[in-house]
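Holo model, shikimate-3-phosphate. Inputs:
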Amino acid sequence: MKIYLIGYMASGKSTAGKELAELLKCSFVDVDEYVEKQQGKAISLIFEERGEEYFRHIEKVALREISQLYKNCVIATGGGTSCFYSNIDFMNIDGVTVYLRLEVATLVARLLNDHTQRPLISGKSKTDLNDYILNALNLRRKFYEKSHIVLDVDDYSSHEVATMIREIVMQHK
Ligand code: S3P
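Output:
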């Protein structure tokens, strides 16, 4: 079975995803890492050199390659993966999709604390970040909420999130 983790930047897809893969004793794949390895460049550099449209194209191809390469795995998508092309529909057919949903305030706090290079939000002040995320979620929510399972995870640790997903997915089987 493939489990796709969906959600905005800093929603804990990679951290909870790694823990979930350990619990399920299966592989873990991060779409951003896969793209970076394949291109030999950081995502921020790909955006800088080739722009977002190019990134969305290689992200779409990477998603389908990962799906071919792994049968049982947990896949952490990038924050925008589910919102371009028909990626969310592809993932819904290919596996179980889980949206890790968080309040805007939680996302802002996490992103201000996290020093990962994220081209879409780099250099934004707290107020700008808040407005940017509010706007982005208004556009992205309809894609994220197509997921099979929607979890509100503000108050849970990555370990608790991983455990919850395992329980739910086991019942889904
Ligand atoms: C993006 C999220 C990033 C990465 C890229 C674009 C987005 O992934 O794919 O910077 O559009 O939300 P994370 O969600 O892992 O930060």
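The pocket of shikimate-3-phosphate is lined by residues 9, 32, 43, 78-80, 118-120 (CB under 6 Å). The mean pLDDT is 96.
Archived with the compound record.
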